[in-house]
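Methods, example record. To illustrate the input and output format used throughout this study, we show the complete record for Sigma-54-dependent Fis family transcriptional regulator. The sequence lines were provided to the predictor; the line carrying C-alpha cells was produced by it.
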Amino acid sequence: MSSQDAELSTLDGLSPPTHADDPEAGFASAHVPTLTIVWHPTLERVGDRALLPLRPNGSSVLVSRLEPDFSRPGSSKREPLADPHVSRTPIRLLWLENECIRIEKQGSPTRVVVNGAPLESSRDFSANELQAGIVLELANRVVLLLHLDEARQESEDTLGLVGASLAIERVRREIRQLASLDVPVLVRGETGTGKELVARALHDTGTRRNRPFVPVNMGAIPPTLAASALFGADKGAFTGAVRSHGYFGSAANGTLFLDEVGEMPLDVQANLLRALDDGGEVQTLGASHMREMQARIVAATDADLEAKVQAGAFRAPLLHRLASYELVIPPLRQRRDDIGRLFVHFLYAELDRFGKADRIAANKVWLPASFLAALVRHEWPGNIRQLRNVVRQLVLGSHDAGPLDPGPALAALLATPPPPAVGNTSPGGEPGPPPTKAPISPRRTSRKPSDVTKDELLEALRTCDFDMKAAAERLRIPRSSIYNLVEQHKVRRASDLTREEILRCLRECDGNVELTARNLGVSKVALQRRMRELKIG
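The corresponding predicted structure is encoded as:
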C-alpha cells in the first residue's frame, strides 16, 4: 500500500458528522434547550451559556437576574445574569410534550421581546423554531439565544477560529484529524464563511507548519496566465517570459491553497490533475522535464462543482482527486450562538484598528439589545465577512465622543425580516423559520438583472465592501451582470478616480488605504490598482 493510499484509508476512520451537524436528523438524545448570552453590558459574559434542565414533559425553568447560572462550556465558574435592570421576578420557560417551548412572562416587570415581538403574557414556539434559535431581549440590555446544545468541553486551542458552537467545534475536530494527513482537502462553504482561515488552520496544525503557506485566488488570475502562475515557466517559454517557479515552487514543502478553484481554466485543470495523479510531478511551462511537486493542496470553493462538471466546466476526475476529504464550513445562520462572540471579537479589533480602543476602557461600547437581536435574526448572506463589515460601519459611523451609535439606516437594514417560509407555521399560526438545512451553496431564486434598481445595487455593494462577486450573490444575479449594472447606473469605479481625489482622501484618512477605499466607494483592491497606475505611494 502506498503512503497516499494509507492516508486515504485513514480518512475512512474520521468521525462522521453527528446529528448535531444534520439539522434534519431530529433532536439527538444529548441535546437540551440552552440559553447562550449574545449580548451583555459586561462584554466578558458574551458567549456564556446555561444548559437548561428541561425535558419534553412539561418541565420548566425560571429566568431572571438571579437564575439560571451561566458559564463557559466546560468551565466550573458559574454566575447568573446579575444585570440590575433585569428583574428578580422571573419569566418561565416551559418545554411541552410536543417539543414546543412556551415562554411565559408571569407578571415580571422586565421588558421582554421575543423574536422581535414584545411578550405580553405567553407565546408558544415550535420545535423547528427552537432548532433555528429563539432570540430573547431582556430590559433592552441583555440578549439571549434559546437553542439546542449539549454538555461539552470548549476547545482550549481555537485554531484561530472564533466561536464555540457545535458546528464550529465539528470543523475544529475535522481539522485536527486531517492536519497531518498529506492528502488533498476540499474546503466548501458559502462566500464569507472563512475558508482561508480553515485552510491556514490545517497548515498551522500539521507537520508543514514551519513551511510556506501560499494562498492563490484562482478567480483573480487571468486565464491566459494561470498555467505559468501555478506551475512556473522557463525563460522564453512565451513572449516576455522569465524563469519562474510559480506558486507550486513558492509553496515547496508547505501548503498551496487554491481558493475559488471552480474558476480554474480547463487546461490548467488538466495539468493539476496530472500533478495529483502522477506521484506529485508538475511540468514547468516551456520545460522538457517534470519536477516533483512538494506542496500539499488545499482547495476551496463556494461554487456547485458538481453542476460545473455536468456543464463541462470542471473535470470530474479532478473533483474526485481534490475531494479526498471534503470539509464543509457552516454558514453563519447555522451557528447563531457564535454571533455574539464574533461581534465582540470584531468590535475590539475595529476599535483598536481605528484608534478608538479607549472606548472599551471608558465603558462606551454599550449598545441597545434590539440592535444585537437584529444581528442574530439576520440571515447573513455574506456570512462572517458581512458581519465584520457591519461592525466596521458601526465603529466608523460613530462620533469620537459618546457611546457607539448603530444608526437608523444600519439598524433598518439588519432588522429587515427574511421572506416568510411556505408551509411552515408556528402553533400560533404565524410563519415560522424555514427548516434549517446545510447546503454548500444557497439555491436562491435568481433575479433578472434588469429588475435591480440603482439603490439596491449601491446598497449591495456597500454591504459587501464593494466585492463584486459577493454583491452579485446578494442580489441573486450572475456575476457577469453586475458589471453591466455598474455601467448602466453609472456607478463610479476606481478607474474614474483622479490622482487629486485619491491624495485628498488619503490625507483625510491619515493614509489608511482601506478607510480611503470605503470613503471613495470602491474596493480596496481596485483602489490599490488605481494607485499603482497613478504612481501614488
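Annotations derived from this record:
Residues 452-534 form one domain.
The chain has a mean pLDDT of 80.
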